Amino acid sequence: MVRKTVRVLLVDLLGVATYQAPKLPPPSRTNDVSSVTSPRIRLKDGRYLAYREVGVPRERAKHKIIVVHGLGSSKEMNFLASQELIDEMGIYLLHYDRAGYGDSDPNPKRSVKCETTDIQELADQLEIGSKFYVIGVSMGSYAIWSCLKYIPHRLEGVAMIAPVINYRWHSLPQSLIKEDYRRKLVKWSLRLADFSPRLLHWWLTQKLLPSHSVLEHNPAFFNKRDIDILKKIPGFPMLTKEKLKEKVVFDTLHDDFKLAFGKWEFNPLELSNPFTQNRSSVHIWQGCEDKIVPSQLQRFVSGKLPWIRYHEVPDGGHLILYYNGLCESVLRALLLGEEHLSYRPKPVISAS
To answer: Which domain of life is it from (predicted)?
Structure first.
């Protein structure tokens, strides 16, 4: 029983927070320039940030979007929109490796605000314009909240897909979080990450437990539709014991988790509408059956910030990014203001 509890706790620390890409390369040691194959920019602090461009050429694009990946992912994540739609709407997608991931250098002074600084410098150096759209997936959405706080004047619109929620945000109702087991797991995971990172690393890489990921097809974390998706695509290669033995991989995941669920410099629930004339250009997409991020909390966040347009997938779990048609619906809502009736949430009684 104890072993099972600890296993779940450690899985929550490194695996439950997000799932992004069918191909997740481990972070590279970017001081070895010969191993870097991605285009990169050099930031003002000297670090290098790798990126990947998709869609129509940026000089011809009508809509320019920066996509932010989450824990354990990279710029190689797939955003499943058809080429026909991308060409028709003139969409340019800019993916990048966040600090420490892929071919991007780690940031020893990393903070929530730093995520925004990296995005802004990337946009400026590639000259994509004074305003752009941002899309964040799962844990990558904490960078999006940071953009709403620090550079709202640069944003044309925002979308977050299955965004994680930090239980330290003020104003979250006790009636929803007091007995939430995810809150307790995050709390203990943060303590372990803070005070015993070496113990954590040993436990994740020792041989007493099976080498396969306990996340695979686990109904504790994924609903039926998610599990069907996982049967068609690879699972969590960056979270295997072999990859976690690489210090740069472990350190990146460890630091990213601590930042996402640690103490922030601001409370997102106190943000104001960044757009003028009550225009609604901020969207949250959530699976109603998400077992990693509770839909009840997501509804509360959207209700607390009425300028957010909330969309809910009725039978959706945490992997809604990979559901057929979801990405195209996200783009149509974000860029055209269209709303798919199937994703309109059902009325609920708000929590006190």
So the answer is: Eukaryota
